[in-house]
């Protein structure tokens, strides 16, 4: 048996169906555009400024507030101490120190790892000559090859003799010329750091 619908009912079906079809087509096509937009945004890159550490006098602390490693002291002011200690404790070397690393053998001298490109000749280390008193730290000189150590030699020149695996850092077996003082004298200079301790 065949049912014949009145024309008004058929017209009503078309009125309801056409907007639904249009909405479906619009949704499908916009979904494709969204995917393309997402893929496009994935390809978009932002150039972030590399981390760097420009030390101020007050950033230096008593070396005993730093982490000791085989007679020298390590810190990192940019939150990369764990990575810096991994490099320092690797006796074979191979990895560079992360930016923001501070290394000190004695309170009056320091080397700080700066951002890539700071000074390629020194592997981007900045050297410091410091005065230390119970009141704190004063920076006397900072820079590269022009900074002299307490024995009159260029800090950068001495450290430049380190084997490439050790990222410009001198120790007894790294290839640098030995210091004219013994470890016992170095230890007494370290122990005499007059600056107040932050951590006791």
Report on this model:
This protein has 200 residues and is α+β, with helices and mostly antiparallel strands. Helix content is 30%, strand content 17%. The protein is globular. It folds into 2 domains: 1-39; 57-191, no CATH class. Mean pLDDT is 83; it is low at 13-41. It has a 6-stranded antiparallel β-sheet with strand order 1-2-3-4-5-6, covered by helices on one side.
Features:
single chain; 200 residues; alpha+beta; 2 domains; six-stranded antiparallel β-sheet; 4 helices; 30% helix
Q: What's the number of structural domains?
A: 2
Tell me the helix content.
Answer: 25-40%
Q: Which stretches are low in confidence, meaning pLDDT under 50 for 5 or more residues running?
A: 13-41
* Silhouette: globular
Spatial order of the strands forming the largest sheet: 1-2-3-4-5-6
Topology, please?
Layout: H1 7-43, E1 67-69, E2 72-76, H2 81-89, E3 101-104, E4 109-113, E5 125-133, E6 136-143, H3 155-159, H4 183-191
Antiparallel strand pairs: 1-2, 2-3, 3-4, 4-5, 5-6
Concise structural overview:
The chain has 200 residues and is α+β, with helices and mostly antiparallel strands. It has helices spanning 7-43, 81-89, 155-159, 183-191; strands spanning 67-69, 72-76, 101-104, 109-113, 125-133, 136-143. It has a 6-stranded antiparallel β-sheet, with helices on one face.
């Amino acid at each position: 048996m065949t049912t014949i619908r009145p024309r008004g009912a058929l017209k009503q079906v078309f009125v309801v169906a056409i907007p639904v079809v249009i909405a479906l087509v619009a949704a499908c096509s916009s979904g494709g555009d969204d995917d393309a937009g997402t893929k496009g945004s994935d390809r978009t890159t932002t150039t972030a400024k590399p981390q760097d550490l420009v030390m101020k006098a007050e950033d230096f602390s008593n070396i005993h507030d730093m982490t000791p490693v085989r007679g020298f002291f390590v810190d990192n002011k940019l939150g990369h101490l764990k990575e810096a200690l991994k490099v320092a404790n690797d006796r074979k070397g191979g990895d560079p120190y992360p930016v923001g690393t501070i290394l000190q053998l004695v309170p009056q001298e320091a080397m700080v790892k700066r951002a890539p490109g700071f000074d390629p000749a020194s592997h981007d280390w900045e050297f410091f000559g410091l005065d230390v008193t119970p009141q704190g730290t004063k920076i006397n000189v900072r820079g590269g090859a022009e900074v002299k150590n307490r024995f009159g030699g260029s800090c950068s020149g001495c450290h430049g003799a380190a084997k490439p695996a050790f990222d410009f850092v001198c120790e007894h077996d790294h290839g640098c010329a030995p210091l004219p003082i013994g470890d016992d004298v170095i230890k007494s200079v370290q122990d005499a750091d007059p600056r107040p301790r932050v951590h006791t």
